[in-house]
Amino acid sequence: MRITRSVAGRRHRTALVATTGLTVTALLLTGCGGSSDSDKGADADGNITLTVADFGQFGYKEAGLFEKYHELNPKITVKEDTTAEEKNYYPKLLQQLNSGSGLADVQGIEVGRIKEIVDTKADSFADLSKSIGVDEWVSWKAKQATAPNGSVIGAGTDIGPMSLCYNRELFEKAGLPTDRAEVAKLTEGGWDDFLALGEQYKKKAPAGTYFMDSASAMFNAVVSSSPEQYYDASGKPIYEKSASVQKGWDLAAEAASKKLTQGLAQFEDQWQAALRKSTIATVVCPAWMAGQISTYAGDANKGKWDITSAPGNTSANWGGSFLAVPKSGKNVAEASKLVAWLTAPEQQAAVFKAIGVFPSNQGAYELPDVKNATLPYFNNAPIGQIYADGAKSIPEAVLGPKDGVIKDSISTQINNMEQRGTSPDKAWGAAVRTIDKAIG
């Protein structure tokens, strides 16, 4: 399954985060907008236009950061070129890298693609290790964008620490606790406890409702909590023997067989309608997911949802992106300065306040707009605390060049178990054939 956060997870603006005020500062802002010797894109008056190509919703427009950067650097104007779907954006990026033309000054890269870029295209990007504070990021985030020669080709934007979103109203109707601490206790043993809670829900569930939206989302959460997922440290695909993959698959198969899931492909029209109609009691919730729920469930369901910690005591990450600077650009030095500023703590906190995506820069965690953040839509859940606690204990995972292909293929077959009743053995066999054909 592709890291879905890059596609629909960025498409719509999230619920507003309630925080104390924070002014976006000029911290890490270098220069006064003039061009350097290495930048050849300035006009006769020294004005530079920097282009940023990304996908979905990075939050810079919503947070007003490009305008702020221009105020602080009057000779620099930033223009954003956004592709709605990452699945359309990435092939174009590869084509541009191969041809050496058409690239923006700054390019967004999804976490599910970063390993392939590091392995095959690192030489096409500027080394940012001297222009960003690499040690400020959660350690595993920085390593994901670090090439074997030590160059850092991407500055981390956001991450997706895991939580659990649940519909308080449906829980109450099913006779389950609604307090977030009590819900967390019921699942403290892990995802097996989560399914046991699902069986309790099913006994008294309101007619036409389901415990969870998608077993594939749970699968991804289980796998994402493990250091070893689809590849080993040598770069060999191990998905068939991976303990985390097998555990996630078995849990997904159990959820499908027990009809605990509505079997919906996340972010599609039916999934959106289910949120609006309140037929889903729980959704696996990386930080960015809350915005999707509030968007599609709508104002009528405000206050009916809440957020608690993810099942078990092992944190997980789902999603996140990077900003990279192509070497072929005419404004490499100024583009690198822009990337450093956009990913500094104050700016990441501003994006979190605007659209709810959680910072990868640890320096943001103690800023008021992150530390004190709550979500009014979700019964004022203290998301700053919940996500920061999770982010600090996420394991460093081994990434592979075709993680996205593997996840996509397995997700499709989990969906077949849910919707078509395909047996686990047949579904797994189909997934393996698809994956092996794709990755060689």
Notes on the protein architecture:
The protein is an alpha/beta fold. It is 40% helix and 13% strand. It contains 17 helices and nine strands. Strands 1, 2, 3, 4, 5, 6, 7, 8 and 9 form a nine-stranded mixed β-sheet that branches. Helix 8 runs antiparallel to helix 9, helix 8 packs antiparallel against helix 16 and helix 16 runs antiparallel to helix 17. 54% of the residues are buried. The N terminus is likely disordered.
Brief rundown of the structure:
The chain is α/β, with parallel strands linked by helices.
The value of Rg in angstroms is 22 Å
Instruction: Please report which band the strand proportion falls in: under 5%, 5-15%, 15-25%, 25-35%, 35-45% or over 45%.
Output: 5-15%
Mean pLDDT: 90
Task: Characterize the largest beta sheet: strand count, sense, and whether it forms a barrel.
Answer: 9 strands, mixed
Please report the distance between the alpha carbons of the first and last residues: 18 Å
Shape: globular
Number of H/I helices:
17
The succession of helices and strands, N to C, reads EHEHEHHEHHHEHHHEHEEHHEHHHH
Percentage of helical residues? 40-55%
Q: Kindly name the structural category.
A: alpha/beta
How many extended strands? 9
Poorly predicted regions: 1-14, 20-38
List keywords for this structure.
nine-stranded mixed β-sheet; 440 residues; 17 helices; 13% strand; 40% helix
Draw up the topology in text.
Layout: E1 48-55, H1 65-72, E2 76-83, H2 86-99, E3 106-110, H3 111-121, H4 139-144, E4 155-167, H5 168-173, H6 180-186, H7 191-203, E5 210-212, H8 215-224, H9 243-257, H10 269-277, E6 280-286, H11 289-297, E7 305-309, E8 317-324, H12 332-342, H13 345-355, E9 358-359, H14 368-371, H15 383-391, H16 403-420, H17 424-439
Parallel strand pairs: 1-2, 1-3, 5-6
Antiparallel strand pairs: 3-8, 4-6, 4-7, 4-8, 4-9
Helix pairs in contact: 8-9, 8-16, 16-17
